[in-house]
């Protein structure tokens, strides 16, 4: 270490493996590597970068595209270049027989053609990365490592304005360029493009990782690595046909199986399931934590290493919001997503009431804080997977991703993902300046190089790193990643049980001190969850309103039962008839309850899926839940009433109420006019049979001629409005010739005659 520090202070980079036990052997290797480094630095500076024989390289460039203005080779300035490069594919692990194969896409973003140019691929076969900073600096183009070994040089034709070109490099396994790599591990590779005119240039900084295959160097113990794929989907949508059957109380559909099928995973589900099954068959060591609700939707449930919480419900988001009442108001209770619910869904999926499986809660949009771990443990989850939040920004050497944390309800085992490798596996660059990590192939090359560096960092320390893939990731991408790991001789793929059984990196107070202090819930994630809660709370209120104050569950009479009882003659027949009538009445009484329970369960299932926090699922499930409750309420409606013409002081206004639901309802109809002179009676109560209609009559009273609007509204039994209001018109035409007018005239005439008679027959006073 002293030698390394002294040479680094002197500006010399030591290229030596960070291992081997005997001090003398270590010093000998250091000296040999020191000499090699001096030669690598001094010789190129005297004679320029050496170009290796490229005669064995098969290189082709196919152009269809354009050109640019001057651009810098550095990453920071490359962003302004009119030429951009990306890696389409690259050999992630170079073995004795693999060769090295690379495909690039060059894009000309300018409006001028580039003219002819050249792509050069160069490496440093002797270089060994000595620190995390060293490897990151190279990825960001901030390290001046000499590229002594030219791997290939390809002529590129002119790229048209706004066009692209594809460049392919194929280096045979026996090529001298690859034979120059005599030690295993990651090597720096620079890919550069320059137009012949010098007007356009660009570069990428990537890695070539040599395995120990075919090399004579001593092998060290492989580092354990566990790769986990969450098996879930964001393609959830409502099956409108099945939902309609449930709403219509089709008895064949009032069961748990129908509720499961009422929400399905999209039209391409079979194709996706087949690809996932093939992937798991090909890569047996790929660990799968499956959403049991997703397994329920599969025709043949996939094999899983463990199951997660139902619907990937966001437990960390639930803990961060800390509003359990809001979830209850939305119709989603803890019994819908706890460990017991997970096991029940799994048993339903595999068709066995005795089936059992390991249950591991997957991290949601927040972090596994103490509160989140408390919540998970209280709901029966003793093991959780943390995809982020643990070891964030840690500069220490990598270690086993296992912590044992104490909670109010018992210990929780936290399986924490290794951040850099997990980020790369999930499609995230290590930084915005890492120029080659803008593509899957570029990130895969970095993943392999980074994992090799971690093993070289502490080759004799037993560790097990957890890598978490992304839900819904392309099966082709996972296949490529797993194939690369399987070829990485420095890695040993293990299963979840091995990781769980390994020694914890920290436990007790030490583990508690490493638990994230803040939830890390983004404002966007918070708003998504709150929007889902708001939507489902509204639909839950509508379901409750219908069940408690509209549905007329007390109407249990059965015409068929009554008829049977009345036509029976003998005592035995009458007894049997009474039994049948009672049974029918019981079934009728249970009918509305069973129906509403199915609707509530369906609503809760939609809510659990929406509260996974995915924006698209929230939208689709929210629309489905709103449609479910709206259908029930709108199935009870007022039939449009024709305009009423009144020619007397009083008249009748008939109103028909229709019920399209499968059970009777009892409601109140409200009638209110816009006039003080033309009015109706205020309310009328009505019981409407299942899939039928009933009529109520309002009394109209008129005091003058004219017209007014009458507003007809449906109210539940508590007086709250629902369904669509109707408006009709009442027109009054009081005429003098009608019976009322004649009566008025007759009375006036009699009063006039009586007045005249009294005038002529009264006795005069003496004073008159």
From TrEMBL:
Coiled coil spans: none
Region (Disordered): 60-83, 557-588
Annotated TM spans: 30-52, 740-757
InterPro entries reported for this sequence: DUF6049 (IPR046112)
Keyword match Transmembrane helix: yes
Compositional bias ranges of the Low complexity kind: 60-75, 557-570
Record keywords, A-Z: Membrane, Transmembrane, Transmembrane helix
Protein name (record): Uncharacterized protein
Originating organism: Bifidobacterium apri
Phylogenetic lineage: Bacteria, Bacillati, Actinomycetota, Actinomycetes, Bifidobacteriales
